[in-house]
Design goal:
With about 100 residues, this protein is an alpha+beta fold. The chain is built from 1 helix and 6 strands; from the N terminus they run ββαββββ. The strands form 2 sheets. The protein has a 4-stranded mixed beta sheet with strand order 1-2-3-4, with no helix packed on it. A two-stranded antiparallel ribbon has the order 5-6. The longest helix has 14 residues. It is globular.
Length: about 100
């Protein structure tokens, strides 16, 4: 495992993207099944294979193992579909 990216929306949806250096399907399935048992609040579980020398995933394709592959976020009356490579920040607080 290289990196773990977690996103939690204000409406309670949880996306987890696990980045691996190489594919090992048997180990990945075992890890993910245990993770889903221990953290049932995960609504979308993805993985990305990244054999590059950096941690950027923007030129790679995350694959959905469980769930829709995205989470939904609500901001006022608007709803947003947030994918694993989406740029979205809801942490701005007006002064």
């Amino acid at each position: 495992m290289r990196t773990l990216i977690v996103r939690i929306s204000t409406i309670g949806e949880v996306m987890v993207n696990v980045c691996f250096e190489y594919e090992d399907q048997e180990e990945r399935v075992r890890l993910f099944e245990e993770l889903l048992k221990k953290v049932p609040s995960i609504t979308t579980l993805l993985y990305t294979i990244n054999a590059k020398m950096n941690d950027s995933i923007y030129d790679l394709q995350p694959l959905a193992y469980y769930g829709r592959g995205y989470i939904m976020e609500k901001l006022g009356d608007l709803r947003f579909k947030i994918g694993p490579k989406s740029f979205f920040s809801n942490q701005y607080k007006a002064s």
